[in-house]
Specification:
Helices cover 86% and strands 0% of the residues. It is mainly α and 324 residues long. The longest helix is centred in the first third of the chain and has 40 residues.
Length: 324
């Protein structure tokens, strides 16, 4: 009985923060997708950054939904099934979650690259060529990122299926304390597959940050008081925070994999905490993007007017009742 109570407390301790990240994340990501999809539907101009941000919103919403389903469904609906069936379902959702994680890595790196090519003031032939190619083929690069993510998932999946066929499905899915729970090949695959987009993000962030730093330095030396440098500083903060988000996200998932490799224990709490990072980054994207910020202001203004109007109506009705 005590063990059951402890298990329920641990489950609630995971479910509450998961829902805390999922509900705001669902609203924020849906807002980003809705604004850009509405502009596309009405024939308005949709930039390369809009395509990437919309794809990021979709992938992040899918990642949070997968993690929440993994917690809720297994506990509430799969408890009547045996351990093998539960682990098969968990294994399938885990593959989907890993795939979406790779997509997030590539899309975030693509966003950094596009911003670097769009804002940096370099004029070399290679730089101008890359700016023209990527700016007009952003959708193709998004699709390429999805394909690469699928390729990174297929390889460890085939290894896992091979292990299941060799050792038996039960021993492949259930932790065996006499051996490592996952193949070291999966650690290598994750390290390589996630490090490449992280490297691209690092290079583009450093290039853009350096370009903005030199530009602001020259503007300071010109002593032109009419120039407002706050926009440049704000963009530099955005670049730094995006790179830090990407790095922390990479390290957090790498620690989860290594910990499970050595101890056969999932760090579910760390994975759930990591899901707060995309929500915070998407919120900052809304704040930094003029179009999204304007639409969010309209939504908040509408909600504020609706609440106060309803409150005034209820107050008026109360006064009329008292008068009667």
């Amino acid at each position: 009985m005590a063990d059951s109570d402890d298990t329920d407390i641990q489950y609630l301790g995971l479910l509450v923060p998961a829902l805390t990240a999922f509900i705001p994340g669902l609203m924020i990501h849906s807002f980003i997708i809705g604004v850009n999809a509405t502009d596309w539907w009405k024939g308005r101009s949709v930039t390369a950054v809009d395509h990437i941000v919309t794809s990021l919103g979709i992938s992040r919403m899918c990642a949070q939904s997968t993690k929440t389903i993994q917690l809720v469904v297994i506990r509430l609906f799969l408890s009547r099934y045996n351990v093998y069936e539960q682990n098969m379902f968990n294994f399938g959702l885990g593959i989907v979650y890993i795939f979406i994680g790779y997509v997030n890595f590539w899309l975030t790196s693509l966003l950094s690259i596009v911003l670097c090519l769009k804002i940096s003031n370099f004029h070399s032939r290679l730089f101008l060529y890359l700016r023209g190619v990527i700016a007009h083929r952003t959708v193709y690069f998004i699709v390429a990122g999805v394909i690469l993510s699928a390729f990174n998932v297929v390889i460890p999946l085939l290894v896992a299926l091979s292990d299941m066929h060799r050792d038996g499905i039960y021993n492949a899915i259930m932790p065996n304390l006499s051996m490592h729970c996952v193949s070291s090949y999966y650690i290598y695959t994750y390290t390589v597959g996630a490090s490449i987009p992280l490297l691209f993000c690092c290079i583009s962030s450093v290039v853009l940050f350096t370009s903005l730093y030199h530009h602001t330095t020259k503007m300071k030396m010109s002593r032109n008081l009419s120039i407002n440098l706050e926009a440049y500083y704000s963009l530099m903060r955005f670049i730094f925070l995006t790179f830090m988000y990407k790095t922390i996200y990479f390290i957090g998932h790498f620690l989860c994999i290594c910990y499970y490799y050595f101890s056969c224990v999932y760090l579910e709490w760390l994975r759930i905490v990591m899901e707060f990072l995309p929500v915070l980054h998407s919120s900052y994207l809304i704040y930094r993007t003029a179009k999204l910020r304007s639409q969010m202001s309209k939504v908040l203004q509408y909600l504020s007017d609706f609440v106060f109007q309803r409150k005034d109506t209820e107050t008026r009705e109360t006064i009329e009742v008292v008068t009667l």
